[in-house]
Amino acid sequence: MSEAVEGAAVPGLLYSEVEDDLRASVRALLADRSPAAAVLARVEGDPVADLDLWRELAAMGATALPVPEELGGAGASLREASVVAEELGRAVACVPFLGSAVLGAGALLRTGGEAAAGVLADIASGASAAVLAVPLATPPGADLPAGVRADGGTLTGAVRGVADAATADRLVVPAHGPDGPGLYLVAAADAGVTPVVSLDLTRPLADVRLDGAPAQVLATGPAAREAFGAALSTGAALLAAEQLGVAEWALATTVDYLKTRTQFGRPVGSFQAVKHRLADLWVGVSQARAVVRAAAGAAADGHPDAELNAALAQAFVSEVAVRAAEEAVQLHGGIGFTWEHPAHLYLKRAKADAIALGTADRHRAALARLAGLPAA
Amino acid sequence: MTSAPAGASLDAAALRRRVADLVAAHDPATTDPTAFLAARFDAGLAWVHFPEGAGGLGAPRALQAGVDAEFARLGHALTGREGLVIGLGMAAPTILAFGTPEQRARFLRPLYTGEEVWCQLFSEPGAGSDLAALGTRAVRDGDTWVVNGQKVWTSLAHRARWAILLARTDPDVPKHRGLSYFICDMHAEGVDVRPLRQLTGEAEFNEVYLTDVRIPDAHRLGEVGEGWRVAQTTLMNERVSIGGHSEPREGGLIGVVADLWRDRPELRTPGLHDALLRLWVEAEAARLTKERLRQQLAAGQPGPEGSAAKYAFSRLNQEISGLELELLGQEGLYYDDWTFRRPEGVEFARRGAGFHYLRSRGNSIEGGTSEILRTIIAERVLGLPAEPRVDKDVAWKDLPK
Which residues sit opposite B193 in a β-bridge? Predict the structure, then answer.
């Protein structure tokens, strides 16, 4: 048996009262400011991101939960951040949480230093969004992307398909220089940020071009690699929480609809062929919740299982969320295929999330390594 | 569950002291195990949420896990009780909920100590998932009942002293309303237990023929015609039996297959690797879900996840055992033993991959089929409307059989 298998922890998998309260406030704010109809109206506007909502979330402390209080954050743990991610997923809210609060702040928290501290304080206050400039599909364990060169305090190169970049005023850019890999801070105004048409309407992507952009070094060498890898792995754990929220919305909305939708003189939800599919989905969502809590707990505690639990969460929850969203479209029938019904927003988010930070297959490959189950 | 005022004030520390006092008074080296269990019952430490005098203290159910753990720590772990599952898990809670003081006093103590084994006479050849359609008849004759019928799928019947029995006392009313619930003496005249051979080759279960079996009315549980409601208590408890301890990663059959993968590189193929990893993920998710449910129960917030745990387990066990056979390749073509015999205790872990595969087929049939469990989840957890029923208002005797 491998070491990871023997060292399996028994983390606390329930929600605390503080987390329940936090969830209730975030959910109430989102119900008021970001109902489905409002999201639908936003996604073809400019900007897609709702920066007023983002500032209100910041005022609640929800955008910088794991940032220490002395840096202006809430000094809370990744468990609370995971609860916020669930609620943002449930609402497919158009805010730069993943790009900035999770990936950008995740890297900055680990590089340390004065420059990082300043940006973290701005993220916490909602004054700034600083995103990690990686293609969104980058899995934890990947090396820093090769597309950007560092040279004499400037960066040159390109990064394609960066989440939330159009909203950011600062970019945390992985690059390679004469001293090896490094993480650099660049003002978005000094970079060329071009929005692209994204599959996920509620999380826009943008391409980033750097042409001798002035850059401040945050970390180099092994420290940069470590900060980059940890940001992605923690990001994978929190992304799974968002996917859980997406799946919960899809299941609950579909169940509610099928209780009232009548065909053949009966509620559609009374047909066994439909019921059993929803029961299977409920089982999957219940399991996803346990997996997401285990991943958040291990990440929060810096447990040796953190990397394994994050990979497990992505491998398991990605498929549950996609299935939930696909079932929502199918079981809503004709109305589920229309633009006016919000189901498609969740389908697009679920499928994009399943690719973001590595597909389930890549995470299973990581588990093969972490659990000692080598390939053929 | 009844909560006496005294019991409600008990906390985990107070219970640990009672455990320590009991162990101190009974030297494990010289005390007979059955006598020790009897003393534990009398001290109210058998199931702390039961009332005083019935093996409990009226304390919160959540404290039981701590009591069990403390006994284990002091060298009195409960072991070898697989043969008592029906008595402990199903008969005891039902007797507690519906039994007379005399019934509680007569049955609970020897049930707990293991001196008397119990079995369950519910399913019939014509009533599986549709249990309420059962046809075993109980006809009143003064202050006894005369019972005739056939029961199947009865584990432990050959070792049992008592059975919980569901029988039809009124065929002229709709099926759910004509049932009554009895305690049947398995040593009574007219009880004939025959081994029933399964597709694994062995006879883990029995069929039980009941011919003019006489049951005193004093052994009826609940009112005449109230049997279905009493049976709900029994079936509810069947699915709540989640252990008080955490299961380790790779604790189940997935661990056997994962170790086979690690130990036998020559068996590996890319497709099997993918299948193994998918099932490893599923097994770990199911384990964490059970762990979360355990934590919810311990915190006194039982969730509906219990009804899903058995369903998830059976599906997983079937898929993993199928993979185990394929991974073994040529060796998967052999079988360890087709002998028609009754197994001793739980043999699953000791048997070969072929047995794992075949026995796991029963997991999605026994204790509620996967189809019934999904309907329960859909209707009771998700609140989806029931299917239209054709049998609800028809007298049982007029139903198509």
Answer: B208
- What is the count of residue pairs from A and B with beta carbons less than 8 Å apart? 137
Per-residue pLDDT of chain A (376 residues; tens, 9 = 90+): 333 344 444 678 999 999 999 999 999 999 999 999 999 999 998 899 999 999 999 999 888 887 888 888 877 889 999 999 999 999 999 999 999 999 999 999 999 889 999 999 998 888 889 999 999 999 999 999 999 999 989 999 999 999 999 999 999 999 999 889 999 999 999 999 999 999 999 999 999 999 999 999 999 999 999 999 999 999 999 999 999 999 999 999 999 999 999 999 999 999 999 999 999 999 999 999 999 999 999 999 999 999 999 999 999 999 999 999 999 999 999 999 999 999 999 999 999 999 999 999 999 999 999 999 999 9
Distance from B332 to chain A by nearest Cα, in Å?
A: 19
Q: Is A293 in contact with B292 (Cβ distance < 8 A)?
A: yes
A373/B contact by beta carbon, under 8 A = yes
- Joined tokens for residue B151: 């029961």
Annotated domain spans of chain A? 3-98+108-127, 225-370
What residues are paired with A262 via a beta bridge?
A: A267
- Asked if residue A49 lies in contact with residue A100, where contact means CB atoms within 8 angstroms, the answer is no
User: Buried b / exposed e across A327-346, counting CB within 10 Å, b at 16+?
Assistant: bbbebbeeebeeeebbbbbb
Furthest-apart CA pair in chain A: how many Å?
74
Contact assessment for residue A168 and residue A119, using Cβ atoms and an 8 Å cutoff: no
- Asked whether the beta carbons of residue A255 and residue B382 sit closer than 8 angstroms, the reply is yes
Backbone region of residue B351 per phi and psi (left: phi > 0; alpha: psi in -120 to 50; beta: other values): beta
ipTM of the complex: 0.94
CB B150 within 8 Å of CB B165? no
Q: Which residue of B has its CA nearest to A310?
A: B281
Q: What is the DSSP letter of B385?
A: P
Length of chain A in terms of residues written: 376
Question: Which of A242, A328, A317 lies closest to A284, judged by CA?
Answer: A317
How far is the alpha carbon of B367 from chain A, nearest alpha carbon, in Å? 18
- Which domains, ranges and CATH numbers included, belong to chain B? 1-79 (no CATH), 81-241+389-401 (2.40.110.10), 244-367 (1.20.140)
Whole-number Å distance between alpha carbons of A153 and B118: 80
CB contact under 8 A, B383 and A259: yes
CATH fold of A225-370, please? Answer: Butyryl-CoA Dehydrogenase, subunit A; domain 3 (1.20.140)
CB B377 to CB A283 under 8 A?
yes
Q: Which of B259, B292, B311 is best to mutate for the A interface (most A CBs within 10 A)?
A: B292
CB contact under 8 A, B280 and A270: no
Quickly tell me which residue has 């039809």 as its tokens.
B168
Q: In 3D, which of A97, A34, A128 has the Cα closest to residue A353?
A: A97
Nearest CA in chain A to B245: A10
The CATH number of the structural domain formed by A3-98+108-127 is 1.10.540.10
The answer to whether the Cβ–Cβ distance between B308 and A283 falls below 8 Å is yes
Distance from CA of B11 to the nearest CA of A (A): 22
Catalytic residue selected from B238, B250, B305, B366: B238
Say if residues A298 and A306 touch (Cβ distance below 8 Å): yes
- Give the HSE-up count for residue B259: Cα atoms under 13 Å, Cβ half-sphere: 11
Catalytic: B238?
A: yes
Q: Residue B344 is encoded by which pair of tokens?
A: 């001793």
Chain B: closest CA distance from residue A249 (Å):
13
Contact status, residue B359 vs residue B325, Cβ threshold 8 Å? no
Q: Tokens for A82? A: 């995971």
